[in-house]
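Hi P.,

Sorry for the delay on this. The queue was packed all week, but I finally got your sequence through. Input first:
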Amino acid sequence: MALLASDAKWPALPDYSHEWALVDVETSGLRPGQDRVLSLAVLTLDAYGNRTGEYATLLNPGCDPGPVHVHGLTPDRLAGAPTFEEVAAEVGELLSKRVMVAHNAQFDYDFLAHEFARARSWLPVNRRLCTLALNRLVGPATPDLKLGTLARHYGVRQERAHDAQDDVRVLSGILRGSLGAAEQLGLALPLLDCPPRQDYKPFVPKTPCPYRNPGRLTPGGPLVQGMKIAVTGDTGIPREELVARSVAAGLNVMTMVSRHTSAVVTNDPASGSAKLRRAAEEGVPVLDEPAYLRLLESVLPGQAKGAVRVPAGAGTAAGTVPAVPAQREAHPGASGPGGDVPRTRTDASAAPADVPRAGRDAPGPRADVSRIRTDVPAPAPVPAPRPTPADRRGRPLTGRRVLVLGGGHEEAAEARARALYMGASAAVNLSATVSDVVVLPGGEADRRMKRVTALGLPVHAPEWLLAPAPAVVAELVPGAAGSPAVLVRGAVLDLADTGEPWTVSAMWGQQTPCDVDVVAFVVDAGEQVQGDEDFVFYGAPEHPDGTVRLATDGPNEQVVGVDLARLPLEAHRVVVAAAIDGAACFSDVGALEITATCGVGAAPAARATLDAATTERTLILAELYRRGDGWRMRVVGQGYDHGLAELARGYGVDIAD
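Then the structure:
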């Protein structure tokens, strides 16, 4: 679908009328709280798009400026610049009572929040708008969504890339064009509430343990480097000193207990703490502090991590799921005997036989699949054999994107499944990428129908999906620029090693009446986290080593970024899931759209739409897993009726009752 030419006028929709503060920062690295802001620019606009203020400055960070070849800011250039503390008041005044706008806004927001915290203040921003997220909703006809690409699309001249002052000027033109496109589509802006925070602290990483875990402490035996040690209750010497001495000895001090824990240290074994209860369940040995201190005096050498690689053909690195011990027969998301049973669907959303299910304690080898698996059976009432990738490219709706309006949850899910089977991708929101609209009963009253009519989109009855008209758009090859591969439940995609982090984003309908939280678990060969830092969620959105990070780009979109090249060998899989906050379930949310992208602003490599949830409150969206020396992503779509706490416990996270 081609949008109308962008109007030079500022959009007139009341919901778009805000005071704006456009922001761009150049930084010494990519880790907020660890790296510093080197330059910043702020441009303020009124509700009609008129410029009301502008500010730009270099900043002396008091540290190495990092990649000079990117931003051009050498130590000599920054030497005479003010510190952030000196300009914080002026910057805060420009941001106050305005919607902060940035491209990849969470990045700029987090860096500024940490800078304000260092200045003993807080970032005075209540709401922000990410132009990257806004354009993901709009879906412009561009090869990617990077700042320079969008500038060319919206007719904005870019003079100096990675210059904060020029970038914020370019951003103002992109905002104008993006708002105009969103107005034509009738989109609600993805404004994200972000109340002022005072709890940002400089990044303090957990000291990594360089040794492999040798297992449990044996009765009367010695400590060995790499053992996982948990401490609970009061200690005779300060807890910080006890941890420091343990780390110096080569032990891995954890803040939780799992079946991988080597020993628990406590001076009150009868306290009934959560750690001691878990230790009793898992048979983890418990010792008191004096005994532990004696053992600390002679810790045996351990095996360094990375000394032995997982051989090809072993574990999930070769595509084989390792055997899970008998005491953990259920899938990590299951609640055990008497708990919720994962729901199994028999329509087109059902997963192929090689997708792990609850109750499979030791699955056999997974089938060797090609780059993209599309073996989805046809939905009723038209049975058909499972298609190959070549079959999908020749199907009637290949290259088209279908939005389904109206109908109940099951009816809409069946229509989307049919569209997928016919070769199309299924949209969850109206965007410029939508080529066809299918209207089910009640869909005529959908508020988007007015926009659909104004844009001249083809509107079809449900029967059209049984015998679609010949394609009226050019057939696109899955995976080509601007045409991501369309994945179904159980499909697999090879993840290219480009040096850029991969992101898995989840997007749902803008009218969703409940909150959805996306989370990630970094698990080992036993499908368990090795520490509570391996659970990345809204309360701990970044792994301490920076390999996995959760970003919230809007009220209906969250993104998990994974730096696959830096994940330790012990990390066999990254599981991305979603959970409902409250009593609602996924039938209230409707379809979720999953995209896989390599690099910020890059074109998505793959897209999937998941409907496989009704009464479920947690849903496994996708998993990134080792395959030989590389990585793959599998679309899962497995749901459970229990909540996030139970899901996390299943993966070994210590969740307090």
